[in-house]
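Dear V.,

Thank you for sending over the compound details. I've combined the ligand you provided, calcium ion, with the protein sequence from our construct and run the structure prediction for the complex. I'm sharing the raw inputs here so there's no ambiguity about protonation or stereochemistry in the SMILES, which I know was a concern on your side last time.
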Amino acid sequence: MTRLTTLAFLGLVACTATSNGNNDSSTDPNNPNCANGGACNVGGSSGGGSSSGGASSSGGGSSGGPTASATNGIKDGDETDVDCGGKSAPKCTEGKSCGSDDDCDVACAYDKKCVGAPSCAVHLGGDTCGEGEVEQSGPHESCCRTLPVKGWTDPSHPGKQVYLDKYEITAGRIRAWVAAMAKMYNGNPDVRTWIQQHRPAIWDDAWNQFLPSDWEGPVIVINRRLLGDPRPEDYGWGVGPGVIVPPPTDQPRHLGINYQFNSEVYVDLHGSDCGAYTDSYGFSTYFYPADILDRDGQQPRTDGTGYNGQKIPAQELLDVKAMNCIPQDMLAAFCAWDGGQLATDSVLDYITASPPDLGWVSGCGTQRDNHSDLLNKKYDTSIQTGGRCPAVSLINATFDAGDNLPEPNSYLNQHQYWYPDLGNQTYDKEWEVSAPGRASLATAANGKAVDAIAINPGDEPWMDLAGNLSESALQMNGASFSGLFTLKYRGIGYGSSRSDLNTTYMKGETVLRLQRPEAKAAYIGGRCMRFK
Ligand SMILES: [Ca+2]
Ligand SMILES: [Ca+2]
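Below is the predicted structure of the protein with calcium ion bound, written out as structure tokens.
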């Protein structure tokens, strides 16, 4: 029952076959047709028509006559745009018209235009990034837009231009990935098998144990100490706010898609906030239907009201927002499927002119962003200086997701984004998290976004790097991958991310919790980089 609900919700039921029954997309990582419910009925329009016309390598199409050519500067034969698409012309590039994925070098989107990355073939979260909400007439663009990193070369990709995506990854793009995985593996979103078949250049096979192979599983048994905060039992401390003590025994945890972005955690981080419980302030952005949430006592996600007074179903408003509550290994796997790689700390540091060491720093410059200092109101040693990031008072970043610490009305708990209006609801605080590209408009001068960072003045900027969500990155040592993840910048709940539990070694542990592949929290998002 649960699984049927989920399949219908993903739109997979209507996508089980194309007109010719061709299943060869199952081996193509860049071919997520049927990525959402609206993009499925594309197989027949070009392929079906041309096959009876005897299209040949000379370019003769069913309707274009014997002179159709892929070099004549007109759309003829079975081309879907000028001199591209169809059976014999070259694949179309981003922005050109298409009928199916076969017409494009990457994928054909819901609006029959080729896209630059497969995850952006969907509408919500795919082409809704930039200024203005969906119902407004903002200049939205592809959420997969990627910008060259001028002056930067990646030692492991010599001769390639490095690109970093302009926007944080959206929940809608993750949903498109899940749908593509399910389509590829007989209805089961088997990310584990996909990674084994398409091992990324930067990957650790030890991460595979945390990947989903299905909607529900597999199940992994996790050491009890990792499932809670061991400091109370190690040091005789009392249990403070937000502290979960370890269970008495090791515990099974589900790894399936229905759990990966949900409240169940595989390593306890302080303030993970991925569950929408009655007395919590969770703010996860991946929509699950009520029956999935009900299994562990969560409330259904909240429908919103848009600027035109219209009701917006919870999934529609969540899909456009930045993705959080996703384990870091899953971010890396997603970017690999999407044709790139999770950003490295090196490229992020280059763009923002940040110091290379995590230490106590989560943003630009040399500030000492210490959780305890802020709790003790030592703001003078904790305020950001240096680097290209805008000041923390201007970006969408709050110390505490519940707005309770370090003190009411402090600028450290000042939202720069608030949408949709959920009436100050506290158990479902997703209204704090922005869709990429509109996080700081509330404080913008002259209509310009504040959280926009460019290497050179006048360059097209990257959006929301400094705020909205803190960003997971691959930690590099020069040209070598350290094997660990790291967390950059600030966002909603960034004070929790700096908790000692996350950033200092607990007794018996040799890896910081925030560096682990299975770590997830509502304050952690990410973005991809690419090499061309
Ligand atoms: Ca032509
Ligand atoms: Ca960010």
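A first observation: The radius of gyration is 23 Å.

Warm regards,
I. M.
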